[in-house]
Amino acid sequence: MVASRESHIPIISEPTDQEPAEIKQPSSIDDLIALVRAHEDNIFSYARERAIDPLTLRTQLLLHLPRLVTADDFPGECDIQREIRAVSDLLEKSQRPYAQWLKQPEKAIALGDLEFISLDADIAKIYHESLHYVGSYRPGHHFAFRDKNSGRIVCVGSVASFDLKHAEEKIAPHIDSRSVFVLSRFFAFRWAPQNTFSHFHGKLRLQLMKEFDTKLMFSFINPNLGFNASSHTGAHWTVFAHEAGTRYMYLDGRYRTMRFFVKNYGTSDAARLQAKLGHSFRVSTIDLHPMKLLAIPLQRRARKAIPAVPYLFQRPELHGSNSAKSIMAPAEQFPSEPPITTSSAFAAPPADLDSTIAKRRMVTAVSTRPLPTN
After folding, report:
1. pLDDT tens-digit readout, 200-214
2. Is 103 contained in some domain?
3. Could you tell me the pTM of the whole model?
4. 123 and 180 both lie in a single domain
5. CA angle, corner 134, sides to 88 and 340, nearest 5?
6. What pLDDT digit, counting tens, does each position of 117-140 carry?
7. What is 41-90 written as a DSSP string?
């Protein structure tokens, strides 16, 4: 007997006279995470050969592999190797102009060497689209840590306007939603010093309180990518809600965000997209863990908005008319793995970059001093 995955009924093979019926549990996302981690040495080695970010490769694999999981099929060795090559091709194309940025600096950088700066939107867009695992730009306010000695960017973090309507209803009795931001992107190079995230977060919250009188901040964590929110927990974030209904959507075999489909096709509703796009559109069927919506109060009044027990939300369907209500992509957790150690002198972007970017090799520091980009 073979039942659909949606029913959560186990798959049972036909018994023979000699052997009892065997119950086969449906594959889970945890099985997929374990499979990717079992290939981690190979993944990281491949990333070094292709000069791409290793954790972005691993995370992108966990975004793409779920489309291959069905009720009676699970990715095998050939599938893993094929996906490693395919995802590496995508990342190499986007990261090749910035390969020097990924390389280990000749001199180790310490937390005391870092200064907190604001980042130009054009430069932030490079990090969002080419280095962050989501691969899409998110407008907002952008900040970075820069090494005072070399001028290298060490990490980038962005905040976006608060547009989570289901969460807004819960905090409305306590604080004005206009005093809330969402940490929508965070990327740190693998050679960044330990505790970069918590150090950056401390500077960020001070900047937001000073500049915008921010009272509360949110951030999404996706446990289906192997993130456990340890960096956030260490920085005193708490779970505000679990958001059920997580699923991944693909166009021509490539993972795309909900915002991508809303922007380009007017909706994130799977049935409507299937009707519009046909076989080029797919939705993952493997059961995924709920997303974690984390929160941290920046001012005393906002503490009342944090529930004693996390809320349980259902992930909304989005449409073009209410795209501002769409869900934020999760900010990347600062990795716990040791950095890749490749010694190389730092180099500026190659001259063949897009002319509008090549001309803007500086970001603006909070102090208004010019900053050479990586």
Report:
1. 999 999 999 999 999
2. no
3. 0.76
4. yes
5. 55
6. 999 999 999 999 999 999 999 999
7. HHHHHHHHHHT--HHHHHHHHHHHGGGG-BTTB---HHHHHHHHHHHHHH
